[in-house]
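[job 4471] stage=fold_predict status=RUNNING
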Amino acid sequence: MTSRPRAAFRRWRASRPFWGGLLLALGGAEILLTEKASLKVVMHIGMQGVAGYLLPTVMVLCGLLTLFNPTQRLFYSLIGILVSLGTWLTSNLGGFLIGLLLGAVGSCLAFGWLPDQEPRRGVLRRRRDQAPTADSAVS
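[job 4471] inference complete, writing structure tokens
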């Protein structure tokens, strides 16, 4: 009985740039958490702290919108990469580089996702099944 919800989640996940949106949202969340670090750890908040909270919030929103509205993934991924790079100046060097890298990788994954592409596992399995074996090559 647990396989039915799992199969439904897999179908839902395959119909959108899941990992790209998830990494983009996690990158923004990580940067927001580093904003709450103690003052001994905080390196640079920038612009009276407003942009330090605004840019990671936009990252989280772009990640969630990529997950739930995949038709606009190109726009969200472009905004996500620009905002991720902007956090380098406004939010503790992009959340000590971790949030910046998560956001950049997530944006790139979302940008490169193709909606009608067959799953990779099926393509590899199909190639293996179609490959001639050593026995058929001899005869």
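[job 4471] summary: The chain has a mean pLDDT of 83.
[job 4471] exit 0
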